[in-house]
Design a protein that fits this description.
Elements: E1 2-7, E2 24-26, E3 38-42, E4 45-51, E5 57-60, E6 73-77, E7 94-95, E8 98-102, E9 106-112, E10 117-121, E11 128-134, E12 138-143, H1 148-159, E13 172-174, H2 182-195, E14 201-204, H3 225-234, E15 238-244, E16 247-248, H4 254-261, E17 267-268, E18 276-278, E19 281-284, H5 291-299, H6 301-305, E20 311-315, E21 323-324, H7 325-339, H8 345-356, H9 362-365, E22 368-372, E23 375-378, H10 379-382, H11 386-401, E24 408-411, E25 414-415, E26 423-425, H12 433-448, E27 454-455, E28 457-458, H13 467-477, E29 483-485, H14 502-528, E30 534-535, H15 537-540, E31 554-556, E32 560-562, E33 572-577, E34 581-588, E35 591-597, E36 600-605, E37 611-615, E38 619-623, E39 637-643, E40 647-653, E41 668-674, E42 679-683, E43 688-691
Parallel strand pairs: 1-2, 7-25, 13-14, 13-29, 14-15, 15-20, 20-24, 24-26, 26-27, 28-29, 39-43
Antiparallel strand pairs: 1-12, 3-4, 4-11, 5-8, 6-10, 8-9, 9-12, 10-11, 16-19, 17-22, 18-19, 18-21, 22-23, 30-31, 31-32, 32-37, 33-36, 34-35, 34-37, 38-39, 40-41, 41-42
Helix pairs in contact: 5-11, 7-8
The structure holds alpha-D-glucopyranose.
Alpha-D-glucopyranose binds near residues 205, 206, 427, 428 and 486.
Length: about 700
């Protein structure tokens, strides 16, 4: 059951597809009419308040810091480019305004507001929930259902089907800000292939471009780009270039010139283009909220598609501003003043903050406009939609340019609705153990908000990774749909071959390719049925009080639970089992031991390169025999992890990995295992199945 309330004139975000059909109550006319909350309308926004009960738990809010249960902190939806994701932060790159609460009452909340929204979930007062939408209109959706999972499904149905990438995008990707040229990339591929470490993609960060200009390729570094893309494809490697939001201001650069000619960039109040700074220097921002501009920006991806590219990552689309040009001038004037002074406690910090405050400045976001379908709108009023609509530009263009082929696409900034066009990666994390855990904890919230194709920079983006951190992180990463090792320029390099034990990496990454049939199947089924692939234990075992407290384990699909090790020097960990499960402890794809564990708390051993899988009773996990790339996986021979007491059935989905018109029914193979060990297979494929 969905109820809709509106306040003022909400901007149409198109997060909800077909939302017009849900009857709406106007908040102004009936402020007392919102169930669960009391509403206070002030000039600077609307605040919804409610008293929480003691044991109430809150799930959701997508990409955000802190735990699976979000209670006890204040979160802001205000897409921000800031790479320091510490415990004290309130906002990251995304605005995923959906959460649900489970206590004496159970309901879901979606705040459809493209401006800043604050979720105080027991921060100001530990018993109070306060949702504040800053000035401007918004729509509020309240959802009810018999279970948390059902509420999520209902929400997901309302926001439309999640993006499904090509199958190869479930393979391992190696990335690094700093790969400059063909030779750098060949080296990455050679080392993986030589050591038998699987690899499906290499990412091209900003250095592939000519002076950081979108949709260009530096001719000196890549003299024959289409030829190079082909060469990589022969080695079963997909190259995935980055596209940034800002378009360089440069005479003779067609993207810039076309954009200006047609008025497709964001403008200031006086009608002139807004100028800000990002990697290339001075740039304009494409007005992706303007339908025509969006269509035009999207068609530019064709330049790279035509050269054989079949995947992209969209970046800096909060949008990130190093500086706004007008303000920068003021700053330089003030700095000149400081230069004439003796800097003391006040002036020194004044100067420092002046410089630090140049980036992503609130006033700059208030100084430019979009030409949306609903007319002219100031950027800060719709700030959280920018990354969404940039990615939508690409997604819509792919539908027209490549109607029959899935293209890989994911973004840094996002809003609910973008999940129909692409996935997200969780931005510039750090090589910290705490971020490994955070990666796990974010997965469920992201799934709730529709983002199924998602993952973190494995090994950590900022700071220096150690071998053990990378191994442990990959042991989680082999389950996340997007599985990419990425790191920042200036940090310690973290390709597997920078460390001393290639066999450990080969074994762990090999497992990903083993689990791939299951992961792909669970992913597509979750997308097609508006379900989650990563579930907190409490979603599957709602009656279990101890399960509700588990913050470091996750259900992955219907058959298994994972419990990654996320502490340095640990050689095992405590796990909680809500029911009896079978533990498979993998040392490699071909070597694992098994153990039955009863419900309750256990200490389980996990040496540095061992991966733990817990299979649920009467469930099956089909595994392939692996491969060095996704296309090498032999889907006709499967080994079944199984824990069958009476009978276990698994419906395995598979397809060619490219078709856009996914049809669940026609791709299902039904695998049944009986307690006596008999296996039967029916349906689409007829893989040869062996028990493991
Ligand atoms: C941003 C991205 C990061 C990328 C860097 C250079 O920080 O988040 O992934 O490597 O820009 O393009």
């Amino acid at each position: 059951m969905i109820k809709k309330f509106i306040f003022g004139t909400p901007f149409e975000t198109e997060a909800i597809t077909g939302g017009g059909e849900i009857p709406a109550v106007r908040l102004e006319e009936n402020p007392g009419g919102i169930p669960y909350f009391s509403a206070a309308v002030k000039e600077d926004g609307v605040t919804l308040t409610r008293l929480m009960d003691e044991g109430e738990r809150i799930y959701g809010l997508g990409e955000n810091i802190r735990g699976i249960n979000k209670r006890g902190w204040i979160y802001e939806s205000d897409c921000t480019d800031d790479p320091i994701h510490t415990e004290g932060r309130r906002e990251l790159y995304a605005a995923h305004n959906f959460f649900l609460t489970e206590g004496r009452e159970r309901f879901g909340v979606f705040v459809d507001a493209p401006q800043k929204v604050t979720f105080d979930l027991g921060y100001g007062d530990r018993d109070q929930m306060k949702v504040t939408v800053s000035a401007g209109g918004f729509a509020l959706y309240l959802l009810e259902g018999d279970s948390m999972r059902q509420i999520v499904r209902e929400f997901r149905r309302a926001i439309g089907r999640s993006y499904i990438p090509p199958k190869w995008a479930f393979g391992y990707g190696q990335s690094r800000w700093g790969y400059e040229c063909e030779a750098d990339i060949r080296e990455v591929v050679r080392r993986h292939r030589e050591e038998g470490v699987p690899l499906d993609s290499v990412y091209l960060d900003i250095d592939y471009m000519e002076r950081y200009k979108d949709f260009t390729v530096d001719q000196e570094k890549f003299p024959d780009f289409p030829g190079f893309v082909r060469e990589m494809r022969q080695q079963k490697i997909h190259l995935v270039p980055i596209i940034d939001a800002g378009v360089k201001i440069e005479e003779g650069y067609p993207v810039y010139e076309k954009g200006v000619e047609n008025g497709y960039f964001c403008k200031k109040e006086d009608g002139r283009e807004f100028v800000c700074g990002v990697w290339p220097g001075r740039v304009h921002l494409p007005d992706v909220l303007n339908e025509k501009a969006r269509a035009w920006f999207g068609q530019n991806y064709k330049i790279l598609l035509d050269q054989g590219i079949d995947g992209f990552w969209n970046d800096m689309n909060e949008p990130a501003l190093f500086y706004g040009e007008d303000y920068l001038e003021e700053v330089f004037e003030k700095l000149a003043d400081y230069g004439r002074q003796e800097l003391d406690i006040k002036s020194f910090f004044g100067m420092k903050n002046l410089v630090l405050g140049v980036a992503n400045r609130k006033e700059d976001y208030q100084s430019f406009y979009h030409e949306s379908r609903d007319g002219r709108v100031r950027h800060d009023q719709v700030h959280n939609l920018y990354g969404y609509h940039m990615t939508r530009a690409a997604g819509e263009a792919f539908d027209s340019i490549k109607p029959d082929q899935r293209i890989l696409l994911f973004s840094r900034a996002s809003y609910v609705g973008m999940h129909r066009y692409g996935g997200v990666w969780t931005g510039d994390n750090s090589s910290w153990w705490s971020h490994l855990l955070m990666n796990l904890q974010m997965m469920a919230g992201l799934n709730m908000c529709g983002f199924l194709y998602t993952g973190a920079d494995l090994g950590g983006f900022g700071a220096d990774a150690t071998e053990d951190l990378l191994l442990r992180w990959l042991e989680l990463g082999i389950f996340t749909p997007l599985m990419r090792n990425h790191s920042a320029k200036g940090t310690r390099r973290q390709e597997f071959y920078q460390f001393g034990h290639p066999e450990d990496f080969r074994n762990i990454l090999g497992l990903r390719y083993g689990f791939l049939p299951y992961l792909y199947s669970e992913f597509v089924k979750a997308a097609m049925t508006d379900d989650m692939m990563f579930l907190p234990l409490s979603f599957v075992y709602p009656e279990d009080e101890a399960a509700a407290e588990v913050e470091d384990q996750m259900m992955v699909g219907e058959s298994m639970m994972i419990a990654p090790v996320y502490r340095q020097n640990a050689r095992g960990r405590y796990v909680y089992l809500p029911e009896e499960m079978k533990l498979y402890r993998f040392r490699s794809l071909t070597s694992a031991d098994q153990e039955l564990l009863g419900a309750g708390h256990h200490y389980v051993k996990a040496e540095l390169s061992e991966v733990l899988i817990f299979v649920r009773p009467d469930h099956i996990v089909p595994m392939s025999e692996g491969g060095c790339s996704v296309e090498d996986i032999d889907a006709s021979r499967l080994n079944l992890l199984h824990f069958v007491r009476t009978e276990g059935t698994y419906e395995l989905y598979d397809d060619d990995g490219y078709r856009k018109d996914v049809d669940l029914e026609s791709g299902l193979t039904v695998i049944t295992v009986k307690a006596d060990g008999t296996v039967s297979v029916s349906g689409a494929g007829r893989p040869e199945c062996r028990l493991r």
